[in-house]
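@channel sequence for tomorrow's demo:
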Amino acid sequence: MSSPHPALFPALIPDLVAGVERPALRFGERCMTYPELAAAAGALAGGLERGGRVAVWATATVETAVGVLAALLAGVPAVPLNPKAGGRELEHIVQDSAPVAVLAEPDAELPDVLAELDRIDVRTEAPVPGPPLPPEPDPDSAAFVVYTSGTTGSPKGAVLPRRALASTLDALADAWQWTADDVLVHGLPLFHVHGLILGVLGPLRRGGEVRHLGRFSTEGVTRELASGATMLFGVPTMYHRIAEALPGDRALAKALSGARVLVSGSAALPVHDHDRITAATGCRVIERYGLTETLMNTSVRADAEPRPGSVGLPLRGVELRIVNEAGEAGAPAADPDEVGEIQVRGPNLFTGYLNRPEATAEAFTDDGWFRTGDMAVRDPDGYVRIVGRKATDLIKSGGYKIGAGEIENALLDHPGVREAAVTGEPDPDLGERVVAWIVPYDPERPPSAAELTDHVASQLAPHKRPRAVRYLPELPRNDMGKVMKRALRQKD
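structure tokens (generated this afternoon):
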């Protein structure tokens, strides 16, 4: 196993440079081997000059992967663009990152906001070898500028250095025993850390293969896992759909039972879905925890006992501490209600927010720890359990600090609840009261508020029961399947 020290990485994708003859990418019927990928990316890289940034129109296509790899080979930072983003958001990202060009598949129709940029069509065939590649850039040089969701203002561009990519991907390889023999299948978007860095660069760094579904479906998962794929990446929404389909789909259950590793990320996977998948397949889903600014921080190991509701232990090279409201960093907490903010440091961190020195300084403590804004508890053996975001998932009610996640898990354990989210709202007596947002299985006969309150109170401490229950046809979610709780609060 390679050392995570950045100075020991001659290239982010060694097999791409070496030209090993084996499958690399498959998007539907379109496949590329490592030599084909190296030729296409190398030819494109030859036309990219260091000193600027390039935007990548990040559709779920082979061209996106080729464009990103070309930028990495050329040492030019890539700015992935969400094709579903609105005009105002795209305009902000383009003005903020100032790319010199946009890379896109030849037949892609780009929005007007990108019209001023030089367009470079990404070709997947290289009729002649490209020019010699420049030397491998410094490990601390920028590989990506990935924009955050912008839930508290305009999106910020997190500058991710090459050493952060290498460190995270090698730490995950250690945790999951990820090798060149693994074939990863997923249907994640490619403008985000999960789908692009973990889901495309991860397999390629190992010398393995990635099969992208284009669009997630349980049929696609079944097909790929039954035909040689060994790993599955998904977000909770995808695993929820899998759990819903399993009782009537023996082929899906059989395919999942043959997978080596099932990984869920980007949000907490409800314990109820963990249990349903395990009951049908005998396999446990592994959870990991990361952010755009930090890449991956923790994971349950593939060779360890799974623990639903936990995101595992810090990855190799990552330091993690839990800090209480008084700013005190404690040892692993023995009290399951001792909630604090996760702070991390290590080679996996970003170098700062583009053009935002004040925001960068505010994000770090004086001694160099990154403030994640995620609230968690740490079990005596070091396992981390996240209770939610500091801004949206920590409810202070009647003198107690309550994490929304455990209440959501309790609600999902009720047979009448399909989906659940929990928020806090102002209360003149309690400070905040717990509000449950419910998507029932049967909209005509939803479980009553009293029934749900009693159900939670039977599993958790009385102060954690919902004080109000509201019903919705569906929960508002973003492209990564995360529930947008600020949108729920606006419905009040």
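heads up for whoever presents: The longest helix spans residues 162-176.
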